[in-house]
């Protein structure tokens, strides 16, 4: 059974195929009637143990536009709140005959664990601080379109800025951007740099910096990340004010970026903390393009995993 649990599961060639299909799906998004018959008769369950706006609704739209039956189940309102285990929950829902499972969970590794229990494709929609592969795919797809189409990420320099410690988006994007030939510079305050990042950066070939002002003029695009206060149990440092002064994409910092350099943020945004309204709403902001690409990428992923060998 094929799964998408990590960017490790896809090669550069696989990504190119997923992007080519996503481009076709993007055209479908512009049509008045958006349904394709590709997954007619298939059933997909979105099982979300953590909150989501973009990922859950875009997987639902993606499945529906491919004519799959889509069921949404969140931990709140399911029997998980009565103490049912993760294993019993996924075995129960798959016993109903679903063909694919999309899952978000706060525990790193949860999707891998579940994939080992099931013989249907599992898509990781975010597992703790580990990975969020479809987010990285939609981010790279958005950047590639902005920077000149297929192959255009090769040799480009991309800054990923913010709360790197808690970010599954960072971990998936470092892998995906690396596979597509981009060079990454990871920027964060020392307190939000993951432990052991120096060895990791050396092994995976990316750079790190504490100095956002020095990095911004050198990059082709900037990806801002959310400060994840809900994952900070022992208090919050630096303070919000210090964070914005040192690491926020403020109005004055926009002037440090190259003309037209795309600004990305996976959402949800803390406006006024890691990103100013002027940056979020700038002409070069691609944040809503990311959301739109999210549907196309998730249609592509569901299609390749579920449509069957003869049509994949
Ligand atoms: N980017 C992202 O995963 O957003 P949601 O948490 O709203 O799904």
Automatic annotation (TrEMBL):
GO biological process, one term: 'de novo' UMP biosynthetic process
Positions of L-aspartate binding: 82, 168, 226
Pfam families: OTCace, OTCace_N
Aspartate/ornithine carbamoyltransferase carbamoyl-P binding domain boundaries: 2-144
Protein's name according to its UniProt entry: Aspartate carbamoyltransferase
MF-aspect GO terms: amino acid binding; aspartate carbamoyltransferase activity
Positions of carbamoyl phosphate binding: 54-55, 104, 132, 135, 267-268
Assembly: Heterododecamer (2C3:3R2) of six catalytic PyrB chains organized as two trimers (C3), and six regulatory PyrI chains organized as three dimers (R2).
Keyword Cytoplasm found: no
Record-stated family: Belongs to the aspartate/ornithine carbamoyltransferase superfamily. ATCase family.
GO cellular component: cytosol
Pathway entry: Pyrimidine metabolism; UMP biosynthesis via de novo pathway; (S)-dihydroorotate from bicarbonate: step 2/3
SUPFAM superfamilies in the record: Aspartate/ornithine carbamoyltransferase
Catalytic reaction equation(s): carbamoyl phosphate + L-aspartate = N-carbamoyl-L-aspartate + phosphate + H(+)
Protein purpose: Catalyzes the condensation of carbamoyl phosphate and aspartate to form carbamoyl aspartate and inorganic phosphate, the committed step in the de novo pyrimidine nucleotide biosynthesis pathway.
Record's keyword terms, sorted: Pyrimidine biosynthesis, Transferase
């Amino acid at each position: 059974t094929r799964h998408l649990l990590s960017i490790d599961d896809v090669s550069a060639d696989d990504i190119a195929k997923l992007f080519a299909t996503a481009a076709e799906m993007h055209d479908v998004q512009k049509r008045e009637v958006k349904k394709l018959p590709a997954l007619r008769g298939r059933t997909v369950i979105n099982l979300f143990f953590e909150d989501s706006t973009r990922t859950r609704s875009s997987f639902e739209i993606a499945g529906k536009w491919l004519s799959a039956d889509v069921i949404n189940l969140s931990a709140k309102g399911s029997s998980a709140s009565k103490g049912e285990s993760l294993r019993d929950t996924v075995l129960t829902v798959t016993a109903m005959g679903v063909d694919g499972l999309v899952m978000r969970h706060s525990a790193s590794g949860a999707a891998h664990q579940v994939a080992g229990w099931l013989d249907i494709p599992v898509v990781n929609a975010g597992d703790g601080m580990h990975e969020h592969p479809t987010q990285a795919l939609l981010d790279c797809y958005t950047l590639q379109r902005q920077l000149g189409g297929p192959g255009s990420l090769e040799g480009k320099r991309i800054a990923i800025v913010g709360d790197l410690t808690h970010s599954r988006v960072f971990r998936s994007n470092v892998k995906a951007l690396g596979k597509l030939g981009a060079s990454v510079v990871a920027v964060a305050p020392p307190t939000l740099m993951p432990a052991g990042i120096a060895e990791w950066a050396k092994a995976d070939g990316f750079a790190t910096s504490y100095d956002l002002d020095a990095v911004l003029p050198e990059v082709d695009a900037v990806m801002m990340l959310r400060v994840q206060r809900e994952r900070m149990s022992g208090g919050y440092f630096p303070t919000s004010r210090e964070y914005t002064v040192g690491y926020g994409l403020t109005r004055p910092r926009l002037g440090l970026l190259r003309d037209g350099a795309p600004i990305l943020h996976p959402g949800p945004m803390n406006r006024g903390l890691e990103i100013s309204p002027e940056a979020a709403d700038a002409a070069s902001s691609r944040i809503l393009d990311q959301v739109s690409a999210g549907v196309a990428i998730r249609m592509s992923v569901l299609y390749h995993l579920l449509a069957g060998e003869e049509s994949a």
